[in-house]
Amino acid sequence: MTNMRRIAKEAGVGIATVSRYINNTGYVSDELKKKIEEAIERTNYRPNELARAIFNRNSKIIGLIVPNISNPYFNELALIIEEVVSKAGYSIFLCNTNDELEKEQHYINVLQGHRVAGIITVRSRCKEEYTFLGVPVVSFESVISDEIVTVATDNVKGGKLAFNHLYECGCREIVHVSGPIYSSAITDRCNGFLKEADKKQITIDLLQFDTDFQRKMLESNIRALEDIEKYDGIFVFNDIAAATVIRYCQLKKVKIPEEVQVIGYDNSYIGEFLYPSLTTIEQSVQEVGITLADVVIRLIRGEEVQEQRISIEPRLIKRETTKLQNNSVQGV
Amino acid sequence: MTNMRRIAKEAGVGIATVSRYINNTGYVSDELKKKIEEAIERTNYRPNELARAIFNRNSKIIGLIVPNISNPYFNELALIIEEVVSKAGYSIFLCNTNDELEKEQHYINVLQGHRVAGIITVRSRCKEEYTFLGVPVVSFESVISDEIVTVATDNVKGGKLAFNHLYECGCREIVHVSGPIYSSAITDRCNGFLKEADKKQITIDLLQFDTDFQRKMLESNIRALEDIEKYDGIFVFNDIAAATVIRYCQLKKVKIPEEVQVIGYDNSYIGEFLYPSLTTIEQSVQEVGITLADVVIRLIRGEEVQEQRISIEPRLIKRETTKLQNNSVQGV
């Protein structure tokens, strides 16, 4: 309200000049620019960056939309992305959608309203909402459109790795706990797993979890595993869900890995804290985070990004929930 | 740049009028206001909310500054706060400081620049940075100034509860793993614990972790626990650090709770996933989150908040890492 007047007074220039400067609506000489900038500095008035962002689409904020910050994989990812973008002078506006489509749409509007420089969206449920934003967008896992760069691990291959490891460890009665079906990454893992099982003529039982992680899962979906004793191998679609499954086995006094072997997916930090520690398929959070941050910064700078689909290699991380000891990559 | 011109053209008014309207720097008749607003609507141009926020301090964003979103307690807290404020029409701009003072200062500037309606700051290291913001601030754990409302559990009492439980479980050779000394909440826990031990004439060994949670902790601080075998009880300053300690005991084949009993602090979700599951002191994340959100919204609305120090009662959650079975509150 009076801020612009105050700056004008402080700088000894007219308010129209300050307005032209802040809103970039006309010529302001270098001399006056300097005076205004110094006045802004002195009055500790900070809207210029933001005001410029409004009209020039040039804020130093990158929006990061994640489905659930409680998933250890997503929160590690957020930390890595922040580390990379902050070195390039950007801050992260972190939005948590709780896996709700409406919340994601809401946050896209909020980010657009705040004129973010770019958006990184993780396991998005939106499509056209991103396509007309006029803001660089990079997607992790979900394919949004032909124009938007998608980074994903090769989830089909990851599912294959998981099956082959359980098979080599001697499992023949296997159940796969899969996750929300709207996620192509999760269905890809499932498909790779089933395909490989089919080659070995092993029939896989399937269980569906409605969510990748919520505390309620402990009390609802997990009951579907009532007859867990009849299996000798379980592949769970991510680590935090695997932690829930392991805890459930322990409550039922089913021994891991002696009676049932378990493999997760992600290689998030929770795997190391579990006892026994979790064998899993790594989708390198470091590599994924750096790639996402790098691509969005390049797009913001107007550089060309050649590949529209960037694939990250999955990798087996052998720990204690499966038996085979040789050929392994040991975690901490 | 051209946006304001475009709106002016669309509305059939002069660019100076649009500027006066957006920047609130002079009189605009109701008739012209309506024309401009309709033009903004038609051009799908969304700066008005933001432009108004700049000059009227009235955005619908609440900044939430946390030291480390990887700490399960802080990420549950973020989810709860978001749930509450979103019902009141606000969104959360989540900032992760990685426990770095400079990063916290930087994010305070960013939030101020984006004219957030209020700030919730968790275990802050800043003081005067918050006092001249002109934005409602609520603090969790850290006392910032007399004017800023602080919400905290009674950490001295929590420390006392932890000692008394270990004592009742038969522990006499006890070590306390404490955390970063800049946190008054953590030193309060320590002091309450030591005070109660003193009453029973038990000497407590002290160990200091530099951080409440980072993966590196696994490789550095933990080595200080080399002679873990000589203790029969450990109180760790939070759950995620307790998870690290438990994992270390397991690697050293020290049995929990048979040989050493462990109690954490927080009651974050990780405690239920551990095996054995973690006995801990709860500082209800639900109660803390709702209180923080409620206070900041009341302050934003200009309502008075009577108490400057709001204390949340801690509570013992008995699980499997300690022995005593009666008088217990069982977790899942």
Which features does this protein show?
homodimer; 332 residues; alpha/beta; 434 Repressor (Amino-terminal Domain); Rossmann fold; 6-stranded parallel beta sheet; 6-stranded mixed beta sheet
Topology:
Two copies of one chain form a homodimer.
Chain A lengths: L2 H9 L3 H9 L6 H13 L4 H10 L4 E6 L5 H16 L3 E6 L4 H13 L4 E5 L5 H4 L5 E4 L8 E5 L1 H14 L5 E5 L5 H16 L4 E5 L24 E4 L2 H13 L9 E6 L3 H4 L5 E4 L2 H16 L8 E4 L2 E3 L15
Parallel strand pairs in A: 1-2, 1-3, 3-4, 4-5, 5-11, 6-7, 6-8, 8-9, 9-10
Antiparallel strand pairs in A: 10-12
Keywords (chains A, B): DNA-binding, Repressor, Transcription, Transcription regulation
Protein name (chains A, B): LacI family transcriptional regulator
GO molecular function, one term (chains A, B): DNA-binding transcription factor activity
